[in-house]
Amino acid sequence: MARLLLLGPAREAAGVRNDVFEGPTMEAVLSEAVTRYGAKFEAVLEVSQVWLNGEPANLETAVESYDEIAVLPPISGG
Amino acid sequence: MVGKLLGVPGEHDYRMRRVSSTPTSNWVLVTPDQLSLESLATWATRPNCGAVVTFSGVVRDHSRTRENVIALEYETSIEMAEKRIHEVVDEARVRWPSLEAVAIHHRVGRVELSDATVIVAVSSPHRDDAFDAARYCIDTLKVSVPMWKRELWEGGSAWSDESSPIVNARDR
Fold it and tell me: Which of A21, B56, B87, B106 would you call most buried, defined as having the most Cβ atoms within 10 angstroms of its Cβ?
């Protein structure tokens, strides 16, 4: 099972900070996440970057057990 | 004691580090605890440096779209944020090789009005590099480190609308 990390507005829209999903790809995980969390999360996801194990990744990237996928909306630090 | 509380790497007292022959040169921290610009400036002061430039970002009482802000609340993954801040520091050292000490500390959680949200200290033999690198560090942190700011006011709160897509430190 891969771990999904949801931060900031993505965490708020999903209602959880951490969750787990089966692969086999980033696209499959995110599609299932939209089904699980609904339209508000989908809207945030559309403007977010998605990283795999701390690095940017594309939707076709394979997801293995223990991978961490992070949904990162536009940032506002400092 | 202050240095110990703030988690200075490698030593128990930052005041001793300043005269150490092999001081640590980078100090990155993301913490829920109050920040100390004085500690950072003291730590960054080195015998071969004529310039120590510091920057402190503090909570102000308004944003672009809102008045009466009383506090900010920052959310992040500390591990991810510290890794990305290290990339900012590494890139600053590539661009300004003369830098001696570089430190960036950032708060998480609630930060009250006028308290520091982020502090930066950079030292170098001459001031130009220290000024330029400090400016690069804070500007690049704001667009490359995963961090989300929520504005709080009496009776409500909302995510800051002053947000930007994430870029890599080396691309700025």
Answer: B106
Instruction: Choose the CATH number for A2-72 among 3.40.250.10, 3.10.20.30, 3.40.50.300, 3.40.50.1000.
Output: 3.10.20.30
Encode pLDDT of A16-73 as tens digits: 999 999 989 999 999 999 999 999 999 999 999 999 999 889 899 999 999 999 999 9
Which of A11, A49, A76 should be substituted to probe chain B, the one whose Cβ sees the most B Cβ atoms within 10 Å? Answer: A76
Q: Judge whether B75 is closer than 8 Å to chain A, CB to CB.
A: yes
B124-140 confidence digits (pLDDT tens): 999 999 999 999 999 99
Domain count, chain B: 1
Q: What is the ipTM of this complex?
A: 0.94
> Which residues fall within 8 angstroms of residue A35, CB to CB, at 6 or more apart?
none
B151: left (phi over 0), alpha (psi -120 to 50) or beta: beta
Q: Dihedrals φ, ψ of A26, to 5°?
A: -60, -45
